[in-house]
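Lab notebook, bench 4. Still working through the backlog of constructs that have no structural model yet. Next entry is a single chain of 234 residues. Request: give me the structure tokens for it.
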Amino acid sequence: MRQLSTYAQNSSKVKSLLDMLSDLNTGIEDYASAFYQLGGALSNIIRDTQKLSSQSTITLACSSEDADWLSKGILDDLEQHTAKINLAVFWNTRADAFENKDYPVAPIIKKYIESLDDVDILIICKSIINTSCVVKTNLTYLIERINPQKIIIASPVLFEQAIPNLKNEFAQPISSKFEFLYFAKDTEVNSLGEVIPGIGGSVYQRLGLENTQQKNKYLPGIVKTRRANHHTSC
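Model written out:
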């Protein structure tokens, strides 16, 4: 069962884009475009609710499979309104700790990080949040190095237990900074562990990245461009 947030209920465009993601017949280009547009929609809400200024320092963090689509949609919109936004991209591999599917982990195997100086707002974006192990891993890495005033966790779709599960993973001084931004909350998971209707399966497979190994070999175009401009490396 799906519950739309107020933001989605008030936008026919967002609802249409969510339907495109869950539709198994949506092609790769349209699927990628839907994520990019939803990233822009999430950015619009962030700008409306956070009262950003040209002096706001923001770090936008994502996993590699989201960098060129969802994350880029957020980044392209935010860069028009603030001069200080940095990008952090993580390549994660998924596994079950102790070979127990109830303990999923997502260690970082590679990363691209721009400046982490004086971060006011940390935005963690993810195509879909289910077990939240990827978000937990990437967020843990970052909060060990920065102390943002706010932490916005943004995703078009999340599983209903993702919010309490993620909050329980962090001490109250950290979890109290969390602000969750999403368009749809789903309550079902299939035998493969995929949220239903979710985003229509595995995001990297739907984007043509085939499997975890291929996904982790992919160097997002946004990283290539920004690495050249920021003189940083993966």
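Notes after review: The mean pLDDT is 90. Residues 159 and 186 are 5 Å apart (CA to CA). Flag for follow-up if needed.
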